[in-house]
Amino acid sequence: xxxxxxxxxxAFVLGLSAAHAKDAAPDEATRKLAFDIFRQLIEINTTDSVxxxxxxxxxxxxxxxxxxxxxxxxxxxxxxxxxxxxxxxYHGKGKAKPVLLICHLDVVEARREDWTTDPFExxxxxxxxxxxxxxxxxxxxxxxxxxxxxxxREGFVPDRDLIVALTADEEGGAYNGVDWxxxxxxxxxxxxxxxxxxxxxxxxxxxxxxxxxxxxSEKLYADYxxxxxxxxxxxxxxxxxxAIYELADALEKLRASPFPFELNxxxxxxxxxxxxxxxxxxxxxxxxLLGPTLDEAAAQxxxxxxxxxxxxxxxxxxxxxxxxxxxxxLPQRAQANVNCRIFPGHSKEExxxxxxxxxxxxxxTVMFVAxxxxxxxxxxxxxxxAPPPIRPEVLRALDEVSAKxxxxxxxxxxxxxxxxxxxxxxxxxxxxYGISGVAIDRDDVRAHGRDERLRVSAFYxxxxxxxxxxxxxxxxx
Length: 477
Ligand SMILES: [Zn+2]
Prior knowledge:
Bound molecules: zinc ion
Strand order of the largest sheet: 1-2-6-3-7-18
Strand content: 15-25%
């Protein structure tokens, strides 16, 4: 009897602590660990030019080994010594196919002379931390590693394996880590679906959270080179044919004929949910879009906003110009890079042909510029797949956790205007979602920019958020 009582008491306490852990914010030790990891990652330069992603991957491997993760659950591998990726498997009950969490370790270039502080020094000031990668996206790497270590300490056993892959060359470089892992070690990373803190997001205004996004689809990135050539000659004897004029005319035509408006299941859900929080006129236009036929006039009005424009169509815009060879010579060549963000369902070649059709000048060529900078007469034909329907359990978990942490704040699925590494996992047939949890002020987006920074409170809230979302999804309720 006595024994029974004790067992019951122990069970009661265990039950309580398990329930407590499920909803609890991370303890002080986890918070400190996460912040230390964040500092360590920011101070390892992982730029493509002079940095080293492998150093960061090995540093995270050591963190996990020190925390007791078995060596056989860890892999550090890549195509060369500077571009290694870390993969770690956290074992669950095997009740479902694993989930893969991907987050890139590399960062965009940052020059000391452009910044107020050293971009590779973790500087705390006025409630913010400064450094390259504080927003994009070493914050995510630190949160994932610290959360795995926390789960292990707390004895959390998810219903399935959680795989975390921290990877190279998302921002540039020729060795994208997610792509490399999928091609070379699919068994390490094969998953039911992907979550990626580098996509989706949490918007705040002066630190107050105002909206939570689920990244549920991605546009396809492509560069094209529009080239005009001419025999040239002496600039004292100009003619009407001139490579610079012809290129300028071509670009003017692109400005005048944007791509058509489109919708897909994710952008429909975006407009349906966003309409609920927009001013009346905008909401009415968004609702008008969702009718059986797309309301062109409503789309035109909405597309005046660059963000909504990017959600509604393929966009192409000239981003670089290069022309002529001497101040006193007629140009023999004029060329412009045209950067496109392609609406899912179209191929890069389809868009290349469409650009040529809009330019309608056989004297000009439109070439495809591959990620490695090489130029080609045609582009890849494969279409970026239209998004699969959003997994209801993913949206439900995000709704639940957001309601707890930021009551009343809307949760909105979206199509990312820029592409994240999800583009590779989606292409590999693995549905992929962006879930961040880290709030960034709408007027303080400094990813890729100077003096990149993150509110310290947003870091800790993001850490709390990720523990909650993973438990909500994988506790096997
Ligand atoms: Zn990023």
